[in-house]
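Hi, can you check this record?
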Amino acid sequence: MTAAVTLGINQETVIFPKIPKRQSDLLGCLSVKKVKTDTENKGRNQSHREALKPTEAAFESVEQPIAGEKPSCSPKEDLDNLLLPDCWNKKQAFLFTEQYKWLEIKGGKLGCKDCSTVRHLGVTAEKHVHVSKEWSAYLITPNGSNKVTRQAALRKKIREHDVSKAHTKIQNILKESGDDSISNIVRKLNNKNIDATVRVFKTVYGLVKRNRPLSEIEGAIELQEKNGIDIGNCLRTRYSATRIAEHIAKEIKIKLFKNIVEENAKICIIIDEVSTISKKSTLVIYLQYEVQSSPAPIMLFVALKELVSTTAECVFNTLLSTLVDCGFTNDYLKANLIAFCFDGASKILGRKSGVPEKVLETFPKIIFWPCLNYRLQLSLDDSILEIKQVNHLKNFLDKMCSIYHQSNKNQTELKTVAKELEMEIMKIGQVLGPGWAACNLGAATALWRVYPTLYTHFSQSSSYSGLVKRLANINFLQDLALMIDILEELSFLSTAMRLPSRSTNIQKAQNLIKCTIKALERLKTVPGKHESQVEDLMKSDKFKGIPFNKNNTLNPLPRSTLLENIIQHMNSCLLPDDENIFHYFDLLEPSTWSFEQVTSPWRAAEKKLHHLSEILKYEIDLNDFRDFVDNNVESNNVPIPSTIQKAKKIISIIAIDTSEAERGFGLMNIICTRVRNSLTVNHVSDLMTINLLGKELADWDATPFVKSWLNCNHRLATDTRVRQKSTRTFCKNPLALWS
C-alpha cells in the first residue's frame, strides 16, 4: 500500500506518465487493485483513505487535459465505445495510444493511422523497405496462450513498428507536409526524381515511333549514360519497356475516347480482317467521328484483336467487347453509331448471318456500306470469270511474276531491259487478283510501254517461246488495249475514293460510281484511247520488229460481253437496295435540288426531314432548314445554320472504304517482322496505337504519362530496389587487343 501511495504522490503533477512498455501493465494492475481496495475497505481509518486519494488524482490528472480539449468526445469516451484487444483494459489502451500517437484500435485490432494515410513510400522507398500491410489495414492481433504472453507480444509489435524504417520515413513525410495534403506532398517529392523517368519514357516512345525493337532500350540507355545523362538505375530492360509502351497506349486511348464520349460525337465503325505473319486471324478496328472544330471527319485506330474463329458471331463479339473496353457503352452506341463499313469478304459480309445482321440485331437503324474498292475489284474479277474463256493477258502477266520472283538472275535481266515493268511486277505480285484496280493498271500500262523491248528480250531465248508467240499475236495486243481502257475508268473511281477518302462522302462516291457506269457504257459503242491506237502502233517504227499475226488458238476477249458483265456487277453490288437514303441526304445538298419545285416553305422536303433526323440520330431544327432553303433560293451569301452544318458533318463520317484499315495492315507488317514474330497481337496493337495516334516525339510531353505511371504504384527510374546488372565479359582482357 505504501508503494501505491508513493506512486500516487510522485505522479500527482504528471500529465502524461512516460512509462516503459513492460511497466504499463503493472500500472494497470495497480489501478485495478486500487479500485478493489477502495470497494472492500470502506470502513478503514480516514488517514489510510487519504493516502489513497493522490493516486485517484493522478489518474484524473492524466485524463483531464484531453477532456478539456474536446469535452464532447474525449479519448476515454472513445475507448468506451471501442472493442479492445482481449488482453487490454481501457486504461492500458489509453496509455499506449497516448505514448504512440500513431496507434489506433479498430475492431479489437491494432493499426497505424499514419501508414494507412500514406500507404506508399514513393521515391523515398529503398530496397527491402515497404509499408506494412498489416499495420495499414488494422490487422495486428496479440499472440500467445495467456494474458501475459499476449500483452508482451503486442508491446513487441508496437515497439518494432515504431522504430521501423518505413514508419520513420512516413512520419518524416507527414512532418514535411504541414497543412498540405498527402497526395500533394508525395507529388512534390516525386517531382524531384521524375526527370530520369521522363527520359526513359521518351526513349521508349522514340523506339516505338521508329518501329524499332524494344530490346534496343538497353543500348539506347547505355549511350545516354556515356553522354553524361542521368537515366536512373531502374526501368532499363525490354520487359520494363513493354510495360511502359502498354501504359502509354492505354493512356492515349483513355484520353481520346473519353473526349469522344463526353462530346457525344456520332461515330462510324470500320473493320477488316487479316492474318498476321504467325498465321493468326486478327480484326483491325477503326473509328471515324465528327468534330465541330474540324471541317473533315477524323479517323482513329481503335485496336487490333486476335480472332478465335472467323465466324460472324466471333467477329461481332470481339468488336463489341473491344468497344466496351474503350468506354463506348451499349447505350452510347445505340444513340451515336451511325454507320458500319466493312470488308466485302463473304465470311464478314454474309447473306443471312453475317456481321451486319449481328450488328443490326443490337443496333438497329444504322447504315451499312461495304468497302467500295473491294467490291469494285470483285466486280472486275467476277466479270472475267463469267466469260468462261482463257484470259491470255492475265496468264501472261502471272507467268512473268512467277519467272522474275523466283530468280534473282531473271529479275536482273528484266531490270536491264525494262526497269519500269520490273518495278511494277515486283510491287503487285499478281494481276487481276485481290489487288485494287489502280495496281492492276500500273502493270498493264508498264507492259504497254515496253512491249517491243520485252518482245526482243524474250525472243533471244528459246525458253520463252510461248511468251514470244503471245506478244506477236494481234488479239493479245487488242486485249491489252481493252483492259487498259477498262482499268483506267475503274482506276479513276478507285483513286477518287481511296486517296481523299476523308473528304469524299458517301454522296460523292455514289455520283462517281454512276459516272463510271456511264463511261463503261460509252466504251461499248466507242473504242477507248488505247484501242484506237492499236492499228497505228503496229505500223509504227517502234513495233516494226514484231511479226504480228492472228493465231486462232488465242481467241480475243468478247468485248461487249465483258463490258456488259462489269456494268451489271457494278449496278447490283455497288448500288445497294437502300439507295433511297440518298434522297434524304440530298435535302442538304442544294446542287441536287430542282429549284422549280422548291417553295417557301418547302413542304415536301419538310416531310422527309424527320426521317433524315432518325437516320442521322440528330434532330435538325425546322427553322434552320427553312432558313437554309431560303438562303439558297435567294442566293444569299450567309453562314449555314448550326444544325444543318452539323448534320452535313455527320453524313461525312460515313466511311466509303476500308483503305485506312489497309494502311494499318501495312504498319502491322512493318512492326511484326520475322525477327519480331514473338510479339503478341495485344503488343502489336499497343505499338500501332502509339505510332498512329501519338504525337511526334518533338511535340510529346512525357510528364503526364509518368505521373499516371506513378499513380499506378509503378517504380520510377531512380528506384533503388533493383539488382545491379552483371557485366558480360566476352574475353579475359578485352583491352589486350589495343595494348
